[in-house]
């Protein structure tokens, strides 16, 4: 299988007997037949931990035949402190597959707090990426008024689109979409004037349906201070999906998810570009909402999965939501995986019937009411219980599952446990003291099922500069949450 490095060096390469034109894969199903992952890039955070160190990008060896298996083999520190690296994307992906001049070379790292955006060169040495360019926040603010950048996706044009969650003062009314050119110069806003969202967060586009849909976390002035339920009542958090024309940037419909759709975070369409169906995870109410295109061209929505809150003792509220903080869809659109950060479980659902997901696997890898914690869960009969979470390589699992990433073939699921440093401190203070970690979950793609891989544990509590918080993960060759097909 030719790598992107070979494509750049030799101009063309063969994949399944077909000439490879640009980065990525011709289709999601071809991506499933891609090479097994051997490296994974992870955003690691010192911001908010009090350690006075810059955040960094870690390269982790995930090749089970390597002597460095499940170890950090390289750390690229950012040149500034206080960034809060969060999500990441590529300068080019499968949406540019038909462009022979494009290459998946730069990993785009938006900094949620500082507003900087880093371009990281992964092509010179994939095992030891290097800094290529820094987009400074003053440049972004001056030209667009945008701040708090979050999600980055490449476009088929070679440009890069970045969602921004507010203005420099943290007001949600200032949210919108930043457009960068192929060399990371600020071009301006993507959306049409007067078509900015109520709140910003994640987005995904489906070109064959001329649609982009974005979600809405909340006002940076609220979430950067920690979670306060009063801020929800005060209207500082979102409950909407925003439907845009693609690539026109006109806001054509706003879907109000109501009180059952509070804090909609990650949004994903099915990978098949012909499908006009997707899901969004609503964190606070812990519902997976399915959205779909109606016969008249409008968009509708319904709850597809409901994670019931658990009655608890010794916690800040009498009931605890699962807090769905991340989910993804396998490349063949058969399975959906979600992470309940507070409850501590990862779930697998069969979504071959997208309107009726079926639970096929569940594994607990942490959570607030795991054994050894003070919080007790209440059963329906009034008895109390705690979840028994196994140690991995002698390590007690900390926090709960947060970001997840799936191998191309769908058989290995990776999970980190840090959400956002301020919220980590609030809900899982031991993460700041002991650091994050990455787990690998073995996936049964035939009968369904999830199991912790006992051989794999990446401990960010043992880093040279002290414990760090591990957040989002990317493979050098792209993955099911980075690539969009045209």
TrEMBL record:
Example GO molecular function: selenium binding
Signal sequence residues: none
Keyword Glycoprotein appears in the UniProt entry: no
InterPro entries linked to this entry: Se-bd (IPR008826)
Keyword Transmembrane annotated: no
Keywords: Selenium
Domain of life: Eukaryota
Similarity comment: family membership: Belongs to the selenium-binding protein family.
PANTHER family: METHANETHIOL OXIDASE
The protein's name: Selenium-binding protein 1
Organism of this sequence: Nicotiana attenuata (Coyote tobacco)
């Amino acid at each position: 299988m030719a790598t992107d490095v070979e494509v750049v060096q030799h101009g063309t390469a063969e994949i399944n007997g077909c000439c490879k034109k640009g980065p990525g894969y011709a289709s999601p199903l071809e991506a499933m037949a891609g090479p097994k992952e051997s490296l994974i890039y992870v955003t690691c955070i010192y911001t908010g931990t009090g350690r006075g160190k810059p955040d960094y990008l870690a390269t982790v060896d995930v090749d089970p035949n390597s002597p460095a298996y499940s170890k950090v083999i390289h750390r690229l520190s950012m040149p500034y402190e206080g960034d809060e690296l969060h999500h990441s994307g590529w300068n080019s992906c499968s949406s540019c597959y038909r462009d022979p001049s494009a290459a998946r070379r730069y990993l785009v790292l938006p900094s949620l707090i500082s507003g900087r955006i880093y371009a990281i060169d992964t092509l010179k040495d994939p095992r030891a990426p290097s800094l290529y360019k820094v987009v400074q926040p003053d440049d972004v603010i001056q030209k667009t008024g945008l701040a708090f950048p979050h999600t980055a996706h490449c476009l088929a044009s070679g440009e890069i689109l970045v969602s921004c969650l507010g203005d420099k003062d943290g007001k949600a009314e200032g949210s919108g979409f930043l457009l960068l050119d192929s060399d990371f110069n600020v071009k301006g806003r993507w959306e049409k004037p007067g078509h900015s969202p109520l709140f910003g967060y994640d987005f995904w586009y489906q070109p064959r349906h001329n649609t982009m849909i974005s979600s809405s976390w909340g006002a940076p002035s609220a979430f950067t201070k920690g979670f306060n339920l009063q801020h929800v009542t005060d209207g500082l958090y979102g409950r909407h999906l925003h439907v845009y024309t693609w690539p026109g940037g006109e806001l054509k419909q706003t879907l109000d998810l109501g009180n059952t759709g509070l804090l909609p975070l990650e949004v994903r369409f099915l990978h098949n570009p012909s499908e006009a169906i997707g899901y969004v995870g609503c964190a606070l109410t812990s519902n997976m909402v399915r959205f779909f295109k109606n016969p008249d061209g409008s968009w509708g929505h319904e709850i597809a999965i409901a994670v019931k809150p658990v009655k608890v003792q010794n916690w800040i509220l009498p009931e605890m939501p699962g807090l769905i903080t991340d989910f993804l869809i396998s490349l063949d659109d058969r399975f959906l995986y979600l992470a309940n950060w507070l409850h501590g479980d990862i779930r697998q659902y069969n979504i071959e019937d997208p309107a009726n997901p079926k639970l096929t696997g569940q594994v607990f890898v942490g959570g607030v009411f795991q054994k050894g914690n003070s919080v007790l869960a209440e059963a329906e009969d009034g008895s109390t219980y705690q979840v028994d979470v196994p140690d991995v390589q002698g390590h007690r699992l900390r926090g709960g599952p947060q970001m997840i990433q799936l191998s191309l073939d769908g058989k290995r699921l990776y999970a980190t446990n840090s959400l956002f440093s301020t919220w980590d401190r609030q809900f899982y203070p031991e993460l700041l003291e002991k650091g994050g970690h990455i787990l690998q979950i073995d996936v049964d793609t035939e009968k369904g099922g999830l199991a912790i891989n006992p051989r794999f544990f990446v401990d960010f509590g043992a880093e040279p500069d002290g414990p760090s918080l591990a957040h989002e993960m990317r493979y050098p060759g792209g993955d099911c949450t980075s690539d969009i097909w045209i």
